[in-house]
Amino acid sequence: MKTFLRFLLDDTGATAVEYGLLAGILGVALIVGFGALSNNVENVLNTVSNSIKTD
Fold it and tell me: How far apart (Å, rounded) are the C-alpha atoms in residues 2 and 6?
């Protein structure tokens, strides 16, 4: 029983888990952000392309 309680109270690996969660959340945010940004860039380039073709 003491070994189990000692295991529950041990927080030596908590930092690695926190860094892993942080890296995962940042990765998802970057993917979503780049996806939204690429759509906006594509729209701008299409507008410029259409303007050049019609002039």
Answer: 6
One-letter identity of residue 42 = E
Number of neighbouring beta carbons within 10 Å of residue 22? 10
Query: Angle CA(34)–CA(39)–CA(42) in degrees, nearest 5?
Result: 120
The sign of the CA dihedral 38, 41, 47, 49 is negative
User: If you write DSSP's letter for every residue of 36-53 in order, what string do you get?
Assistant: HHHHHHHHHHHHHHHHHH
Alpha-carbon torsion (8, 13, 14, 17), positive or negative: negative
* pLDDT digits (tens), the chain, 55 positions: 888 888 777 777 778 888 899 999 999 999 999 988 888 899 999 999 999 987 5
